[in-house]
DNA sequence: CATGAATGAGTGTTCATTCAT
DNA sequence: GATGAATGAACACTCATTCAT
């Protein structure tokens, strides 16, 4: 046995993350209520009791899953939106590309599905999700649009509804991947969707003079 | 008691519909697993046992709720899309307006939330929802777009992705109303969203020559 | 099947009492925490779920057991103590005889044991037991003693401590029967104990002139 | 740090006693089943695992608590009862005074409450308690009474029941302090109770000629 | 048809006990 | 010796489903 490499190390620091990862899988597959702690524990490679060393209740575990999955992603959007100097077309293309990339490569779609599903049973979670995630992301996009309107780059219109026009199709794509594709629907290429949609949205939103 | 038309006679025939209506409320509020048959029965004004006179299991009741809620709506979209003679701009505006109207006045948003939430636990339902609802609606829109592209009205591009561009923001609006607004987010006017978005989408999708 | 004698009658009215009786047995044997609802249900001849049709929690069932067992007994003592005209010696003899009789023929000893055991975990119960049972019984006895002291029948001294002198040995007898006797100790005849003790207590308590 | 007398050395030997002391507190507050080893360990200032270095099971720890708490007290009673030369009145007064003193200043009341509560679940403990504690104490008192009866000091009557008359009120006082007082009942002064009761009991028990 | 009392399998949670460190 | 992370059996409580009335 090589020294410094104990066969079985106490995992106190790694465990919570492992459990959250396992829980994300199970919650995403089954939903909150249908997810069994036995399954989560088994998938995390621990006993059921061990879950309670790190999370007080199933509720708490679910909340931790959502928070953990979301925090890193929201930063990216906000940061990109702070590139005030860029023309709107460039910035918008950048934002949607980042979003599509994240949606394609992370579990954020599954988390969104969970939040949609359980918003009624987790009022706190819905509020957090609104205040810290969707609200912030939307505010960033709305801010970008408002500034572009002020500079005459984007045509008039409610900036929040413009933001919905920009983001909505991506949400549809994510839901499609999470819900329809597993049921046999032909898959959607999120990156291609983002690329084609941003062309449409930009052409539709840019003021007359701003079009090529 | 007036002979021939006792009040309870009509009840008997209306029961299944009343139960489905009550179930829709409870399922929409709580989700499938958290909905209790006691609550549904109480809200329908019948005994718990009576539910089993009309539906074999909770599963069946849920399926009936989803089917009942969608069938009438899908027809409207398909019918509108058969107006082949209309210019794309007119037809597209019509389709989105109908969709927004339905979304604003029916429970279809709540049902969509339920299907999204429970797709993992109801494979059959997800397939039915795809084959009979979303698939058909999407196919109708895609057909309209393809014909418009063939006539040179709509610029090239994957017609399905174009359809996502058209419909996506409305889904976002519905999710917003069902999930974010109850958590304190400012509400969205679905009709205004549809009106502004179709302007954007049309400008973005129409071929060069087709723009005003 | 004889009419009017259904093979299996709905027991809605009889059930709670049956369950409380079964619960009393099990609680008395094992104590609150060690009593299993499965056992109680089995002994009552019902399913575990049925318990919850009548009692919200195990806690509630325990409380019901205590209340039910006590109410009838306390009346007897209070009633006897209202015989103001009787000489103290007669009344005291009567009270102890009644108490011994009740202790010998009812489950009140087992209930007392339970209350003693669980007073720390059931603050409400301990308070109820004090206010409605022990307190009232003691007050009745103290009242009798005070009146007898006023009439010069009983010698001076704190009437509450005199009451302890009268009642204490009976409690010891009950505890003995519940705790020591099952462990192999020779049994005590509660009636004989009461009879001999009241002679001692009366002789000890009566004023000089009152003794034979 | 002074060499040769490190502070932790004394700890090592004191550990079992510290644990038993902590366990007594927790058992007395919560009862056996509701007492958590975590609490006991925390209160003793050791880890949960450390408990198992000194006691095999929770059962054993409970047994140790009871044994430890009673042994010293029983000696006092037996020793006092060996003063054969003293008149009964003197000896009885002495015994009750000692008992009241011990009851007022030690945890013996809490232990008695525990034994009463758990006698059903700890048959061994109930037997030990009977054979080594209550039985011995009672036998000592009974012996004193029998000798006094032989000398004509105490009137006839079952000596064991006489012993119950002497001791019972003190038990009631202890139960009162442990159970009723914490629930809001007015407290009892155990020493005053013993003093007043022994007057009563002596007057009641002494043979005609023996009274002052 | 309709009721609602009764069932019992299923699950979140606790906690005495173990053992690698 | 001492720790405390980990275990897993045990149990209170829920609720879809049944069926005697």
UniProtKB/TrEMBL annotation, chains A, B, C, D:
Signal peptide positions on this chain: none
DNA-binding stretch(es), residue numbering of this chain: 36-55
Keywords: DNA-binding, Transcription, Transcription regulation
Keyword Transferase: no
Keyword Transcription assigned: yes
Pfam families named in the record: TetR_C_11 (PF16859), TetR_N (PF00440)
An example molecular function term from Gene Ontology annotations: DNA-binding transcription factor activity
Highest rank taxon of the organism: Bacteria
Domain HTH tetR-type: 13-73
SUPFAM superfamilies in alphabetical order: Homeodomain-like (SSF46689), Tetracyclin repressor-like, C-terminal domain (SSF48498)
Protein name according to UniProt: TetR family transcriptional regulator
Organism this protein belongs to: Caulobacter mirabilis
């Amino acid at each position: 046995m090589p020294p410094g490499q104990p066969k079985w190390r106490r995992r106190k620091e790694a465990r919570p993350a492992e459990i959250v990862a396992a829980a994300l899988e199970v919650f995403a597959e089954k939903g909150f209520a249908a997810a069994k702690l036995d399954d989560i524990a088994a998938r995390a490679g621990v006993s059921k009791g061990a879950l309670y060393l790190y999370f007080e209740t199933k509720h708490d575990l679910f909340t931790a899953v959502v928070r953990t999955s979301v925090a890193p992603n929201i930063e990216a959007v906000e940061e990109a939106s702070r590139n005030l100097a860029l023309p709107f077309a460039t910035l918008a293309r950048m934002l949607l590309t980042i979003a599509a990339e994240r949606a394609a490569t992370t579990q954020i779609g599954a988390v969104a599905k969970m939040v949609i599903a359980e918003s009624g049973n987790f009022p706190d979670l819905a509020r957090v999700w609104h205040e810290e995630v969707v609200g912030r992301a939307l505010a960033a996009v709305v801010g970008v649009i408002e500034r572009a309107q002020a500079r005459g780059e984007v045509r008039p219109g409610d900036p929040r509804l413009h933001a919905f026009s920009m983001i909505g199709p991506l949400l549809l794509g994510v839901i499609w991947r999470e819900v329809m594709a597993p049921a046999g629907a032909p898959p959607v290429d999120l990156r291609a969707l983002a690329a084609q949609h941003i062309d449409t949205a930009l052409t539709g939103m840019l003021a007359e003079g701003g079009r090529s």
